[in-house]
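Before relying on records like the one below, remember that each one covers exactly one chain. Contacts with other chains, cofactors or solvent are not represented anywhere in the record.
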Amino acid sequence: MLPTNDTPVLQVRDLAKAFGSNVVLRGIDLDVYRGKVVALIGPSGSGKTTVLRCLNGLEMPDGGTVAVGASAEGPAGGSAGRSAGTSSGLRLDFGAKVSGREISALRDRSAMVFQHYNLFPHMTVLQNVTEGPIKVQKRPRAEVVKEAERLLDRVGLLEKKDAYPFELSGGQQQRVGIVRALALKPQLLLFDEPTSALDPELVGDVLTVIKELAEEGWTMVIVTHELAFARQMADEVIFMDGGVVVERGPASEVLRDPQQERTQQFVRRLLHEF
């Protein structure tokens, strides 16, 4: 069981991002506390995935601050090259110059589970899971392999460790993607619509794994259109539209009795469709 308390794992202030003349994020604030699950919901193009990609250093924000394990109001910078599992803080101010070393340190603190799996097709399942811990984090191979096998066994895929991604179903590939993220021992797990590319009958297996992680106290930010799942699992739901936060609050309130008209329209539409 991971520790659960009121320590902010992630603090985001005034996050901004544009692609040319297309402004995607307009001053996003976000607090995620240790052991909590935050669900980002909203229509396509609202900026949800861009938020995740900025948190993992896959996109460079145009402004704002991102702090992981450090106060958003504290001094910028941090301990780049941190060993996996340590708790040293990192704060990046994207209004100033951010180095590649700092971006690497940001990625070291979070792990992304992608919508379309993003497994290396030329690597086996075990190689996909161990590549990051061995090559990037420089951890001992024997230790990493043992941990990878334990995690694969947990999601029912140990017998597939020597298989290649093309030999797996979509649900199996996504479970490997989750194991790959866990193997990095991150402070923060980021899920980008982890079930949207799956056939309906495969969704349940992936959601079960995520539910188990939430019960164990992993800190997670999940972009999802699965409103029933968000209502059940999320401690907080944030509804985004047009690059801004329209409404936020406990899942039971935002999804059952939203206060903003735009949120009401969105929730009614999705509940009607599904």
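Confidence is low (pLDDT under 50) at residues 71-87.
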